[in-house]
Amino acid sequence: MNKIERGSFGSKLGAILAAAGSAVGLGNVWRFPYETGNYGGAAFILIYLGCVFALGLPIMIAEFVIGRSSHANIDGAFQKLAPGTQWKWIGRMGVLTAFFILSFYSVVAGWTLEYVYEAICNGFAGRNPEEFVVSFEAFSTNPWRPLIWLVLFLLATHFIIARGVEKGIEYFSKLMMPVLFILILVLVGCSVSLPGASAGIEFLLKPDFSKVDSNVFLAALGQAFFSLSLGMGCLCTYASYFNKDTNLVRSAVSVGLIDTFIAILAGFIIFPAAFSVGIEPDAGPSLIFITLPNVFQQAFVGFPWLAYIFSLLFYLLLAVAALTSTISLHEVATAYIYEEFKMPRKRAALIVTCMCIVIGVLCSLSLGVGKQISLFGLPLFDLLDFITAKLFMPIGGALMAVFVGWYLDKRIVWEQLTNDGKLKVASYKAIIFILRYIAPAAILVIFINELGII
Ligand code: PHE
Known about the structure:
Blueprint: H1 12-23, H2 26-38, H3 42-70, H4 74-81, H5 88-120, H6 129-140, H7 145-162, H8 165-192, H9 198-205, H10 214-227, H11 234-239, H12 248-276, H13 287-299, H14 304-340, H15 345-365, E1 374-375, E2 378-379, H16 380-407, H17 410-418, H18 428-450
Antiparallel strand pairs: 1-2
Helix pairs in contact: 1-8, 1-12, 1-14, 2-10, 2-12, 3-4, 3-10, 3-12, 3-16, 3-17, 3-18, 4-5, 5-7, 5-14, 5-15, 5-16, 6-13, 7-8, 7-14, 7-15, 8-12, 8-14, 9-12, 10-18, 12-13, 13-14, 14-15, 15-16, 16-18
The protein binds phenylalanine.
């Protein structure tokens, strides 16, 4: 096989839904509500919106420019746009990041399948709060059960990726994103109509600026990065399948709006339900696996069938959201292997799946029986989370902003943003200014702060 056949998205809507699918994931339904709970509700949301629109979107546009102008995987993209330079290492770091995130993310995604299964079997009914804690701990540290779900989740991801860009990624994104949206709306409807839900709604809408300090800005910026899938090549890879009349700026705004809207709707599921039973929504990582099933049981006491449906739909929602994100991570690595090592797409996908199963199994075990599977004093699971979300993604994002802002020929940037002069882009100068100065500086600040240097 000498010439690689590249796929492409068949429609603009398909392209936007695929990119939105990458962005919408566990980050929206779990991390965003929990961060909002910790950092003062509406005030955090306002700052988060500022981060998404002022910094996240310009970086997303930079990724789109890199992807569509090169029509290549993330490593090939830098080799084409900056031949003979060291910029290719940003791409390679992106591929590594995709492998790592996919491995630990699939562990949690597998847990969502266990919870779907429990919900189907009505396993949450009649449990008291301690039983939820005990059963989650027993499950997540069990040597076998989480591995089965992890492998199943990766196989589902593999199946979609092996079908290709249009028949796999685009087809399933078009199918899953509307399902996800309907599930969310039904759940919001149920949650806000619970007695006492108004306290939760008020928490989301009434900003309390007394809690705002520099940490809130940093948390909001970090959340925006993770949630928009920035800094590691997912969006570059997807943009390499965009066709030439896709409007990059408008697509980025659509993805940003969908991602933010879904995160806020997730808040409207979780806070009204939690406040209605008097539970503080700041439980951290265990929020969706320990606090929420308990909240659902208590909130619908007297209506066991409603508790059943609500729990089932919620975990189904999580699984679907996670799947649209894992396919985007898988594609970064598959496209790289397939194009750079010139092998059939299916074989490339199989290599990625097998490697992620191995790393994923180690990550999962590192939370239970294999506590000794640790490096630098951290279990593998936490280590991979740390080096990707806290190191590689911000570094990658800042470097991509610098690459498009300073290095890349401005004619290419202009042609990409205006589709060869066919579109008027009023924000062109502002985008370049942010990429050159604001984004690298802001990311440097989060980065330094997260490492605890200041
Ligand atoms: N954005 C996804 C989420 O919110 C996570 C993700 C990060 C997906 C990086 C792809 C790349 O869950």
